[in-house]
TrEMBL record:
Source organism: Aspergillus pseudoustus
Pfam families: p450 (PF00067)
Gene3D superfamilies, sorted: Cytochrome P450
Designated name of the protein: Cytochrome P450
Family assignment from sequence similarity: Belongs to the cytochrome P450 family.
Listed InterPro entries: Cyt_P450, Cyt_P450_E_grp-I, Cyt_P450_sf, Cytochrome_P450_monoxygenase
Length: 529
């Protein structure tokens, strides 16, 4: 290359670099200052005063994101909506009133979907099943699956929940020590470990008709794949994501196309789970074709997938996606709920003892467990109250997102298509206007007494948002509540539980799916005599 060419390249690369810097500065100024202050069509909606381009509206770093949302809700005067900004100054709207919730979740539910970026990220973990389908496809899938998730049918699954809950307690006690295991099992164990294994086994047996046996084997291949899929993006990926967000709303989606080590690992793990579910469907397909006995046996299968399979509405491929959805939506969430329940019970020994007394009064104790009818679990008011209060104060899905697909109106504000909303059970479930002044404390008694068992005394049913409301509410709510009740009962009847560090305080921190106590809850188990 001659000297002239070198000089030309140097000159043009300098110009190109200057152009990139200029575009970057112009975009930053526009999206960081001009747009949110003067141009956004949402400027009538109140917004936090402080804002920076790198942190968006999150300007109080020691506060978790959830704590920050709660602070805005209680300190910024608003009429149901608060506008805030993510890092990179992407705009989002927090929904704070029951009227606005009703607009988005019920009255105008058809005007909202999960954003495409969220769907494409979640589809790897949860398949393209009920959780992520939209419109008419969703309606048809929901109709096909409703009978299997109805309370009447879920009751048939209680024995499975109870058997697995007892197995978990027995494992903690050390009943199934493999040779080589420590015979003097230490009394302190991490609840997260057992909760994850128990809830995977339960969703396997009750929703898929397959026993993973993960309670008895520490290393489960499927659990490993879910751990791999939950990897957070690296710092570099996050930085690139924020950079991309300056130019496009689809930065997250673009990022997932880059073949980084993380995206490759997540795709491989997703394929593993998909292949596993496909094999299960093939097994179901191959099963008894001949013989009345086999047919009768098949018809007795109560697991959710078998019921859906018998209805013959879903194709095999659709069933594979639904199975992936049940696995993803059904085990982490309940595992987190159990971890929070144990944490709350360890924090209040009177509540723990009162529950133990109730269980015993109803004839449930370690020895008489086999004669106990699992369906009785619904008849224990205090157990139910504790589970509901745990789900209220520590919602395992602390927030979710909706995007307007067309221009619409929410809480009286005109909302353009593309506006994103944060719907946060973690914020709404502790609203003092709905729950009273003790909304932020763990108080199972709010669910006790005349007419309170199902409402907890909340002023409006949208105030309990743990399973959302409306046509996109959790289809597995009855399943999850009964499962949690069995798991809690089986632990409390057998053990007196105390935190390893009784002074430890835990709070909900993360947004999105799956927020458990940060340290997995280290508990000292003492056998109840
Ligand atoms: C404590 C446990 C659980 C909690 C807190 C929970 C919470 C939720 C929430 C908040 C949603 C709505 C998400 C959104 O649209 O943004 C949802 C949807 C869903 N959940 Fe659950 N869930 C739990 C357990 C389960 C279980 C055990 C299953 C199945 C076995 C399940 C299956 C589903 C499905 C299929 C959907 C999609 C429903 C639809 O869009 O029509 N969930 N869940």
């Amino acid at each position: 290359m001659d000297i002239m060419s070198c000089l030309l390249i140097a000159r043009y690369s300098k110009t190109a670099a200057l152009v990139v810097v200029a575009i970057f500065l112009a975009r930053t100024t526009y999206s960081g200052f001009i747009y949110p202050a003067f141009l956004t069509p949402l400027r009538a909606i109140p917004t936090p005063k402080l804002r920076s381009w790198t942190k968006g509206s999150y300007t109080i770093p020691p506060l978790s994101l959830i704590a920050q949302l709660r602070l805005w809700k209680s300190t910024i005067p608003n009429r149901g909506l608060i506008r805030y900004y993510l890092p990179g100054n992407q705009e989002r709207v927090l929904v704070t009133s029951v009227e606005a919730l009703n607009d988005i979740l019920v009255a105008k539910a058809g005007d909202f979907t999960k954003p495409a970026a969220v769907r494409s990220r979640l589809s790897l973990i949860a398949g393209n099943g009920l959780l992520l389908s939209e419109g008419e496809v969703h309606k048809a899938q929901r109709k096909a699956l409703m009978p299997a998730f109805s309370f009447r049918h879920v009751k048939n699954l209680y024995p499975v929940f109870w058997a697995k809950a007892v197995e978990m307690a027995e494992c903690i006690e050390g009943k199934f020590l493999a040779s080589g295991d420590d015979v003097d099992r230490p009394p302190i164990q991490e609840i997260r470990n057992w909760a994850t294994r128990a809830t995977l086994d339960i969703v396997g047996a009750a929703a898929l008709g397959h026993d993973f046996g993960s309670l008895r084997t520490a290393h489960n291949a499927l659990l490993k794949q879910y751990r791999l899929m939950r990897q957070d993006p690296s710092r570099l990926e996050m930085l690139v994501g924020v950079g991309l967000s300056l130019f496009t709303r689809h930065g997250g989606q673009l990022l997932s196309i880059f073949p980084t080590r993380r995206t490759r690992t997540v795709k491989e793990a997703s394929n593993f789970v998909r292949t596993f579910c496909r094999d299960l469907v093939l097994e179901k397909r191959k099963e008894p074709r001949d013989g009345e006995d086999c047919k009768a046996e098949k018809e007795q299968r109560m697991d959710i997938a078998s019921v859906a399979f018998r209805s013959a509405v879903l194709t095999d491929d659709e069933l594979v996606d639904q199975m992936m959805t049940f696995l993803a939506a059904g085990h982490g969430t309940t595992s987190h709920a159990l971890q929070w329940a144990v944490y709350a019970l360890c924090k209040d020994h009177d509540v723990q003892q009162r529950l133990r007394d109730e269980l015993r009064e109803h004839g449930i104790n370690k020895e008489t467990t086999p004669t106990f009818s699992p369906a009785d679990i619904d008849t224990l008011p205090y157990l139910r109250a504790i589970c509901n209060e745990t789900l209220r104060l520590y919602p395992p899905v602390p927030s979710t997102i909706r995007e307007a697909t067309r221009e619409t109106v929410v809480a009286g504000y005109r909302i353009p298509a593309g506006t994103q909303f944060a719907i946060s059970p973690a914020v709404v479930n502790v609203d003092a206007e709905l729950w009273g002044p003790d909304a932020g404390t763990f108080n199972p008694d709010r669910w006790m007494g005349e007419g309170r068992a199902n409402s907890g005394g909340v002023r409006n049913h949208h105030g309990f948002l743990t399973f959302l409301q409306g046509p996109r509410s959790c289809i597995g709510a009855a399943f999850a509540k009964a499962e949690l009740a069995c798991l809690v009962a089986a632990l409390v009847v057998r053990f007196r539980m105390e935190l390893e560090d009784p002074g430890k305080e835990e709070e909900l921190t993360k947004q999105g799916v799956g927020s458990g106590p940060a340290d997995g809850v280290h508990v000292r188990f003492e056998l109840v005599k």
